[in-house]
Amino acid sequence: MMPGESPKQKGGQPGIVSAALSGSCPRCGAKTLFAQPAGLADECSACGLDLLALERGGRFVGVLTMLLALALILAALAVDEWLRPPLWATLLFWLPVTAGSVLFVLRFYKTLWVYHSYEERPR
Ligand SMILES: [Zn+2]
Fold it and tell me: In angstroms, rounded to a whole number, what is the distance separating the alpha carbons of residues 36 and 107?
């Protein structure tokens, strides 16, 4: 017996990061959430859950991602001013960092949104 343990606690879902990384369906847990690296599938190919309907209203995700990309570009410019690295070094470092962060944040927020919509969906 572990005190204070509740595996299905609302709000503090511990598996959300791994769910975002693997793209697990909120209903059946199959890895069907993403049709593209950062694009949700229309529906779960395993259980038929309508992901498009769940994603509706989650458009602010794109705004958040734009803000993150902007912040990273500003950081890149600041480092550029400070260290004055050669251009190839700047690109070599910042392109994967920016692409990776944006991709992860997109997946993370989309997964978060789908899970939230799935829990709050009208029945
Ligand atoms: Zn499913």
Answer: 10
User: How does pLDDT run along the chain (123 residues), one tens digit per residue?
Assistant: 445 444 444 444 558 888 888 899 999 999 999 998 888 999 999 999 999 888 887 777 778 888 888 999 999 999 989 999 898 998 899 899 999 988 888 888 889 889 989 988 776
Residue 86 Cα to ligand 1 midpoint, Å, equals: 47
Between the CA of 31 and the centroid of ligand 1 the distance, in Å, is 8
Domain-embedded: residue 1: no
In a domain, 85, yes or no: yes
Asked if residues 115 and 26 have their Cβ atoms less than 8 Å apart, the reply is: yes
The total domain count for the chain is 1
Domain that holds residue 58: 16-120
Which residues, other chains included, contact 35 with Cβ-Cβ below 8 Å and sequence gap of 6+?
41, 42
CA of 78 to the centre of ligand 1 (A): 44
Q: Which residues make up the environment of ion ligand 1, defined by Cβ < 5 Å?
A: 25, 27-28, 44, 46-47, 49
- 68 part of a folded domain: yes
Ligand 1 center from residue 59 Cα (angstroms): 22
